[in-house]
Records
---
Amino acid sequence: MSVDLAGVRLPSPMMTASGCAANGREMHRFVDVAELGAFVTKSVKLGAVSGRGTPRMAETDSGMLNSIGLQGPGVQAFVERDLAWLHSVGARVVVSVAGSTASEFAAVARTVCRSPYASAVAAIEVNISCPNVANRGLVFACDPASSHKVLTLVREEVPRGIPMLAKLSPDVTDITEIAAAVLRAGAHGLTMINTLLGVVIDPVRLRPHLAGTTGGLSGPAIRPVAVRAIWQVTAAMRDGRIPTVPVVGAGGVRTGADALELVAAGASAIQVGTAAFNDPTAPVRVGHELAADLERRGITRLADVVGIAHDGG
Ligand code: RRO
């Protein structure tokens, strides 16, 4: 079940979701990460970041909240330890890049794309939508002009042949407007969605559970939100309001049937994030379930069902 992601052929539509499988080594004990269409890394910034205070994870009946705060070793250490290792095991890697300024995003992308392991890089995912930044007003993905600027600067650093995906936030008034802005800046594809901003109150202390108060909600509860975002943006592509590019779907996928729902709304590749915390094989397992489901329906190519929910009749 191979897919074409803006000119890059992946042997499977299945990916991990950024931040949910760390550097891949632990997952690799359970499943060969090279079996994935691509391994998506935790977002990487230029320098080391210690992240927000603890607790920074909360499990709820309807999903998980995180307020990690972009923790990471910085791009140099990422390249030397993590990208080198992923390259050595034959994984295709989508590197999620982040920054506090548009030029920082670009510098991270430059370092990754000029590294000795750039041949493992299947795509750059530009994470403009982290909900856990110091001032929520600075989330790039909430503002078309800031989104455009980040993608414009990153594009200058990413060589032809490596597609640039923009990861969008569901916490915006008009996601199609943000999609239009990043596509004007040259994004080759869109990943939808990042987590949804939430707060959990500790039932005993009656205070926010997370040290940073707010966190990003993920898991099954946000799947209808992901389907809505993919649906709205795909509809805009289909009626010519914005250019047509591949959509990578993410949000609460646990089974092949969940994945097919996102595909029917318009996604041509699927990321599995939160489900991998309980079951590290989930991104690969969901791919097998999706393939079996399509076979039962007599469908041989995933492309034949991408966006099918938009067809009348
Ligand atoms: O690190 C995080 O806190 C984080 C990031 Br960068 C993101 O994009 N989404 C999320 O839920 N958490």
Note: The chain has one domain: 3-52+69-202+217-310.
---
Amino acid sequence: MSAYHFKTKSAEETMSFAEKLGSILQSGDVLTLAGDLGAGKTTFTKGLAKGLGITRTVNSPTFTIIKEYKGRLPLYHMDVYRLEDSDEDLGFEEYFSGDGVCVVEWAVFIEEHLPEERLELVISHKGDDEREIQITPIGKRYEERVKEIM
Ligand code: ADP
Ligand code: MG
């Protein structure tokens, strides 16, 4: 399970890379997004949503924790930052085993609820508008997704 790397020089580039990934995702796919505040996790999800055919504006779900969007497949966009010191379970298992696509920002805070197989993304700052996106597929289905876009 090797990691792949992709560099972007603007928010737009991150979004178009994410859009490409979004266009090939399938029912039941789970993605985790790690990276500091302002790294681009939500920006990435905006692009992903476009690739899923979602036309509504995607905003950070920090306060609601989970937001749902309708597209080619439903998108469940989660930001579980606020669960850092809590073991609250908002029904995660059902989302992860459902028919939609799940994207989880700060997934480390709900580690115990995550499915074993998932696509792990880490976004790091590399300068003003430069970012590196590290992609680690865990499981065969995710290796296939990565092969398709890289
Ligand atoms: P996070 O969800 O990780 O806290 P956001 O996506 O909300 O981060 O914010 C990222 C900010 O960085 C946005 O204002 C975005 O426009 C900006 N940005 C600049 N360059 C990039 C890039 N290459 N990729 C993603 N975002 C970028
Ligand atoms: Mg965010």
Note: The beta strands are 4-8, 30-34, 66-69, 75-79, 101-105, 118-125, 131-138.
